[in-house]
Design brief:
Blueprint: E1 10-11, H1 27-40, E2 44-47, H2 59-73, E3 78-82, H3 88-101, E4 105-108, H4 118-129, E5 136-140, H5 142-145, H6 151-157, E6 163-168, H7 173-183, E7 188-191, H8 194-203, E8 208-209, H9 220-229, H10 233-250, H11 257-268, H12 285-297
Parallel strand pairs: 1-8, 2-3, 3-4, 4-5, 5-6, 6-7, 7-8
Helix pairs in contact: 1-2, 2-3, 3-4, 6-7, 8-9, 8-10, 9-10, 11-12
């Protein structure tokens, strides 16, 4: 397998996982959110990733989320789900459950918390590779995973049969572009923080974008891909500048990204928001007021 084994491209939002008042996955709200973004032009979705709070779900819940996602997405676009875990056995179990559910690909980050050597990271992916059937998107998000998929490591992962793409979410343009240059002939390259530099990434060849902001930024989050792809320079500049401001708003003033995303969705009346899972807490007080003020200033509410 390589980049030519799949046809994945375009804006594929990383979707939230909403919860009911009793803490269960809100399957109806999840479906409504996905259907809205597909209706707005998303070419696929990534479910159960960092935005989807995978780390707060039990393995049974993660597997159910794969099933729900497959039911909602059937015939509507590409479905990639997060199956990464600390151990090889757990990653394999989740990935094979995702394949059984009918998803298109698995998003796998390196083991988290424990610091690994380069060889240990590659060995983890190699061991998983040998026991699964799904195509894999290698997921670089060192701010959450501790272990970084640096360009020279991604080059090695590109030699594994199941790895067909990389989602580069380091937030570091130099690392993103170095990764792109190193592997784009073998792997599809998706820009993670498209709200920060999605437009230049697409201009220079990114196959697509995977970002949380389409959850709370109707159309605009998708235009970070479509505007540069269509050669609309004015629109591209406009949405990239707004994406930068929105990123700063959601990560300052006592706010962190995932609770801020859900709070913004609630303010906009969009399905899929609500309370995050603990240890995250819903925004309240000044952080919540500041978010509302900022969204109004940006013309989003």
């Amino acid at each position: 397998m390589d980049r030519n084994s799949v046809n994945w491209a375009g804006p594929m939002p990383a979707v939230t996982t909403p919860f009911t008042d009793d803490g269960a996955i809100d399957e109806k709200a999840f479906a409504q959110n996905v259907e809205r973004m597909i209706g707005e032009g998303a070419t696929g979705i990534v479910a159960g990733g960092c935005t989807g709070e995978f780390w707060a779900l039990s393995n049974a819940e993660r597997k159910r989320l794969y099933e729900i996602s497959a039911e909602v997405m059937k015939g509507k676009g590409t479905l990639i789900v997060g199956t990464g875990a600390v151990t090889v056995d757990e990653t394999v179990d989740l990935t094979n459950a995702a394949e059984k559910a009918g998803v298109d690909g698995a998003l796998i980050l390196p083991p988290y918390f424990v610091k690994l050597s380069d060889d240990e990271i590659v060995a983890h992916f190699s061991d998983v590779n040998d026991r699964i059937g799904l195509p894999v998107v290698a997921y670089n998000i060192p701010g959450n995973a501790v272990n970084a998929l640096l360009p020279h490591i991604v080059v090695r992962l590109a030699e594994l049969d199941r790895v067909v793409a990389v989602k580069e979410s380091s937030g570091d343009w130099n690392n993103y572009y170095a990764t792109y240059l190193a592997v784009h002939e073998k792997l599809r390259v998706f820009c993670g923080p498209s709200s920060v530099f999605g437009v230049p990434a697409v201009d220079l060849g990114a196959d697509g974008t995977v970002d949380c902001f389409p959850n709370m930024w109707p159309h605009g989050g998708l235009d970070l891909y479509f505007a540069p792809k269509n050669g609309d320079r004015e629109k591209a500049a406009e949405v990239q500048a707004l994406g930068r401001k929105l990123t700063d708003l959601c990560t300052s003033g006592g706010r962190t990204l995932y609770p801020a995303t859900k709070a913004a969705m609630d303010m906009m009346g969009l399905a899929g928001g609500g309370r995050p899972r603990r240890p995250l807490r819903p925004l309240e007080g000044e952080p919540l007021k500041g978010l509302e003020t900022g969204l109004k200033a940006l013309g989003l509410i």
